[in-house]
Amino acid sequence: MRKIIIAVAPVALDVSEKVDSILSPEEIANDVIASYRNGASLVHLHVRDKYGRPTEDLKEFTRTLDLIREGCDIIIQGSTGGVSDLSLEDRCVSLNDELFEMGSLNMGSVNLGENEYINKLSDIRFWARRMEERGIVPELEIFEPGMIDNVLLLAEEGVLKPPFIFGISNGFKGTLQANTRNIQFLADSIPAGAPWGYVHHGMKNMSLLAAAIAMGASVIRVGFEDSVYYAPGKIGKTNAVLVEKAATLIRDMGFEAATASESRELLGIRSRL
């Protein structure tokens, strides 16, 4: 039976009054472990300080990671992303912890609402080489079609090496709209046979996650970073609730949520456990 990876992105970009915001290492870890038990096999992790601001404090990462790993064997994915004033080094500080197995690698610059999300080719080369040095598998984040060309360019240079894992993101203000036409267009544009995942930022229901699965997505992502909704007017009070709804969706489509070990095999990740 076909397996679908559920990724959870638990830390919201902004503190929300609609749900219980999670900021401390203990809060994040508890929600991630509960999400794992409900079917998540990958966590896309940001860490923020007690005021909700992005932080490069490795101590915060280490404490959070240790607590997560004590409770489950979920795949842990760090980030080089985020609209911020952090330096190149600070944006990839999470890659310095040995518990990170994957890293999100944004494949170009893009407008995000009122902000500019800057990822120059020189920046991407820096982060890609850091991931290779540390044995971290990159997920190549695609917001616009031209970013796929950047992947091919850096692959030709030898900076990026197969197997490639793509992450398609729609719904951010100023980027491609979230609809089936754009999902299919981007999915058709990536190298044939490469696994890909889908993020619908700001979703009000999970219909496009279902569409992405039907189009061949290997990964779907839910969590407070993307949206608190799972159906029109229906809010998941925790990330674990959103994961549970995603797992139900997968089962209703006749598939199964992949375990962490199955996900590592699907994504070509060598377990560090």
Can you write the helix and strand succession as a string?
A: EHEHEHEEEHEHEHEHEEEHEH
- DSSP strand content: 15-25%
The low-confidence parts are: none
CATH fold-level topology: TIM Barrel
Got a strand count?
13
DSSP helix fraction: 25-40%
* N→C terminal distance: 26 Å
Q: What is the approximate shape?
A: globular
* CATH class category: Alpha Beta
Q: From the alpha-carbon coordinates, what is the Rg to the nearest angstrom? A: 17 Å
- What is the number of domains? 1
Structural class: alpha/beta
* Average pLDDT score: 91
CATH homology-level superfamily? Aldolase class I
Strand arrangement within the widest β-sheet reads 1-2-3-4-7-8-9-10
Individual helix count: 9
* Major sheet attributes: 8 strands, parallel, barrel
Second CATH tier, the architecture: Alpha-Beta Barrel
